[in-house]
Design brief:
The structure is a homodimer of 549-residue chains. Chain A has 2 domains: 268 residues, Nitrilase/N-carbamoyl-D-aminoacid amidohydrolase; 197 residues, Rossmann fold (3-Layer(aba) Sandwich). With 549 residues, the first copy, chain A, is of the alpha/beta class. The radius of gyration of chain A is 26 Å and the shape is elongated. The first copy, chain A, has a 6-stranded mixed beta sheet. In chain A, strands 6-7-8-9-12-13 form a 6-stranded mixed beta sheet. Helices cover 38% and strands 17% of the residues of chain A. In chain A, helix 6 packs across helix 7 and helix 7 crosses helix 13. The N and C termini of chain A lie far apart (61 Å). Chains A and B meet through helix 2, helix 6, strand 17, helix 9 and helix 10 of A and helix 2, helix 6, strand 17, helix 9 and helix 10 of B.
């Protein structure tokens, strides 16, 4: 039996393009004389479709595509993901399903049982869980077909769930396991996923086809890395990360490999390389799927905008990126020269738009309100907002998307100007702590000094008043980032943080900064998610609250 | 038996203030010689606490308050809402619970079974559902104690759920029903709620105490309106809407009332009055709970900002509201005179900050980018963003919060400038369609012409280019709003909308406008929710999608 794995990049709601990709892969599989071709979770509509699922029209379109796939697949079997309607009146209206299509018709629809409802996941908002488990009979083989999370409770070891779907399927003695997934990337996820797959195979002693979605959907980046594992628990093949791939496997070879001492082909990439590649894909798909080509961004001379510029040039091509320098009276000389040098090294054009005249005119216009008050955060933010206004004017005039360059440390403590440097269509590094931004810069410079060293080594500054330094307002980033990581990623409270050795007054100050700035994060652009806990849909905090604040 | 109902305004995470309110009500109840006092759902921590629930420290603080309440309640019984830990390893970590406290200790903890996970609700994200149903024995009475949604599946008629908690409790023959709720307001909710309460009493023939939360938590407005119903299904008493109230009832009187022909005391308020009162409370609590006094807003001469100004003055006091007029070369004469007249009638100060010089300086500064291009949306947005910059400069200088004045029709079709008129700490009428804004204006003017008639009767215009009218870019509002309502509130697809009689090309155009502007709504301020489907947490749409767009 020959089985094809299609790791495709779908687009939410773009039924035409999704069907085309599925159709092309089916044609490849047919040419390759495959018996079966497997697609990822909700491939028909893209994942996550969110509240589009509440539109009956949307589900009808999914059903139409399923019918078109069935028409396409008269001589080959297909496993493809799509929502299906719950025929019972009780419970949620839909299932998250894997369709098994054979001989030009839907032979079986298998529903997902474990519905992730945490972090960025809202599946129980839409889907009814499955309680009725059966394998799929395909010729002389029985397939344990499952959807994503269903293999994540091996032997009931996941405290979130009370049933183990694959255990249930084992009663019917399947020959191999298929799991169709849309498992979003974070820098820990690839290792976690591999552990879970190994645990499944260790328990069930069966070959496993794990087919993951690849491609970014706004903030969520799906990294692919689909895996074929033999019954001995060795990775027989792993598909590349962050790109579309199609591959074919002979089930006999896979079975035979379990008896030989074949090497394990698991791909382990360094954390910072994964983040780099994920961000490049995230930018590329955001623009591509929205139908835009060109990015604009403010280039300050600091490390954040430098790194974002490089990532954008890699994602979109250097001809499609315009950095804009917007010096003020508080800008240092090197801010300009370092920025110009970076643009030159990258081979990108740049624009210089000084803000001084508009800043002066604004102060003049605001006299009735400002008169007699000392220079404070109002004047600082004014500059940042004039820059944002310039950048947005360019986007409106020439169809750019503005890239936001705030990092996670700033976003966490609210060290940024709402409607100023917090603007943009997409936040590229809003899930990357400042110390990780440095790592990214070093990774980018690993072969040659693309980002001028002076940008990396200078002390971070917002340059909104004379001789300002980030360290005037914030703890040093290595300490701040460790503390933020424990609070945000690990949900440690103030007592635990002090027990870990953080200074109590620092803990109180930083936690308060994080919590009182929820109102700012509420209005930020979508942030490319690369960590297990990013700001955005995966972290839902009250704005009007009074806790550690 | 004497029972007190405490309809209080809690603040998420503000354990000190929440405990103080609970303590005060307990003292009232003790003075009133009550046997039992009932508080609303999650009153200890405020509702909805969202991801604060993932912090062990947060749950510990809830437990501490429960202990303090128990210490306070040595001579009176208390029913109060708080999260409780799930002792089992499997399933979610918490329950959403009603604590029954008697003789100074927690006698029983009843868990919520039906966990709303739709629209603005995410309860299954946090809570494990209850499966084990028992009444609470209190002296010679048995109480069917339930939490919010648990009474919303009367006789299994709600298609969302498969069990009916109150049916389960009936096996133990309770004497009366208590339901503690945090049921957010929308203009349909009060009637729906009353129908559900009546259906419960019709089925179980028992008196019912329904205790609801009152007060706003950012976007969500809880309207109170707690109800005591006798076994005959008559409303024995209904607490006021949108304000804190404490009342006492004698169970014997309540029982007796079911046998007499007592009148039903249900309060039915007109829709537009409810929306008005809800918005006033929403503004008041947003400021009060964040510790701010003063609001600023741009006053354009149009109806939206006029209505918001009146609502803000009613919520915060006229001395705490500053409207700012920011005329440009495209502003009509009446924009200024109408605005000044409104401020005068309201008795509020106003500020005039013309934008022309900054606009001209900006065009000059942007010449390298704008040169040779015709006037387009870039110049329009530039003006809106200069105004936003002025307003934000005032907030930063003098500790105002900027009120956003966009209406729901504009927000839906993206007729607004991101980082311009879409700015603000809070969107007051972002869930009110333009046609409803007119109704609000007429309601405000019902006794006297507070809002000058010219503001109400003039044709809506953004005044960002010569002789601009909303109707140049948008369908007439009465048609647009009907279409938007069917698409947004009722989730009707294009086919259904055409079947309803809407013009097909209009449907395609409007649905496309709604869907391609998701990126703008992603960055808007929290919107006070008054409809059953508001933009915000209750409507989760992909930004990068391709569906009806």
């Amino acid at each position: 039996m020959k089985i094809a794995v299609a790791q495709n990049n779908y687009h939410i709601g773009n039924f035409e393009s999704n069907f085309k990709k599925i159709q092309d892969s089916i044609q490849c599989a047919r040419s390759g004389k495959c018996d079966l071709v497997i697609f990822s979770e909700l491939s028909v509509c893209g994942y996550p479709p969110r509240d589009f699922l509440e539109f009956s029209d949307f589900i009808n379109r999914c059903d139409e595509v399923i019918q078109k796939i069935a028409d396409e697949a008269k001589d080959i079997a297909v496993i493809v993901g799509s929502p299906s309607r719950n025929p019972r009146l009780e419970g949620k209206d839909l299932f998250n399903s894997a369709y098994f299509i054979e001989n030009g018709k839907v032979e079986k629809v298998i529903h997902k049982a474990l519905l992730p409802t945490y972090d960025i996941f809202d599946e129980y908002r839409y889907f009814e869980p499955n309680h009725d488990f059966h394998v799929v009979q395909f010729r002389d083989k029985k397939i344990a077909l499952s959807v994503c999370e269903d293999i994540w409770n091996v032997g009931n070891e996941n405290p979130l769930y009370t049933i183990c779907p694959v255990d249930e399927l084992m009663r019917e003695q399947p020959d191999f396991i298929v799991n169709i997934s849309a498992s979003p990337f974070d820098y820990e996820q690839t290792e976690k996923r591999l552990r879970v797959l190994r645990a499944n195979v260790a328990r069930y002693k069966l070959p496993l086809f794990y087919v993951n979605h690849v491609g970014a959907q706004t903030d969520l980046i799906f990294d692919g890395g689909s895996i074929v594992m033999n019954a001995a628990g060795k990775v027989y093949d792993e598909l590349p990360y962050f790109e579309e791939t199609y591959r074919e496997y002979d089930l006999n070879d896979l079975t035979a490999s379990a008896k030989s001492q074949k090497e394990d082909k698991a791909i382990i990439l360094p954390k910072i390389q994964k983040i780099h590649d994920a961000l490049v894909l995230g930018i590329k798909d955001y623009f591509g799927k929205l139908g835009f080509q060109k990015a604009i961004l403010g280039l300050s001379g600091g490390i954040d905008s430098a790194v974002v510029l490089v990532l954008a040039a890699r994602a979109l091509g250097k001809e499609n990126v315009l950095p804009v320098l917007m010096p003020s009276e508080f800008s240092s000389e090197h801010s300009i020269s370092d920025s110009v040098e970076l643009a030159k090294r990258l081979g990108v054009m740049h624009e210089i738009l000084p803000i001084k005249k508009v800043y002066d005119a604004s102060l003049e216009a605001l006299k009735p309100v400002f008169e007699g008050t000392p220079f404070n955060i109002a004047e600082e933010n004014l500059q940042a907002r004039i820059r944002a206004n310039f950048l947005m004017a360019c986007t409106n005039k020439h169809k750019y998307i503005l890239l936001n360059t705030s990092n996670k440390s700033e976003a966490a403590v609210g060290y940024g100007t709402l409607y100023g440097d917090m603007c943009g269509g997409l936040s590229v590094i809003g899930d990357v702590y400042k110390t990780e931004v440095y790592e990214l810069a070093h990774y980018i410079n690993k072969d040659a000094e693309l980002i001028p060293n002076n940008i990396i080594t200078k002390a971070p500054s917002a340059e909104l008043r004379p001789n300002q330094k980030d360290s005037d307002s914030l703890p040093e980033y290595p300490i701040l980032d460790k503390l933020l990581y424990q609070y945000i990623e690990k949900r440690q409270g103030p007592k635990e943080l002090v027990q870990m050795g953080f200074n109590k007054s620092l803990v109180d100050r930083v936690l308060r900064m994080v919590n009182i700035n929820e109102f700012k994060r509420h209005q930020t652009p979508p942030i490319l998610r690369v960590s297990p806990k990013a700001f955005g849909m995966g972290r839902r905090m009250p704005i009007v609250g009074k806790y550690l604040s």
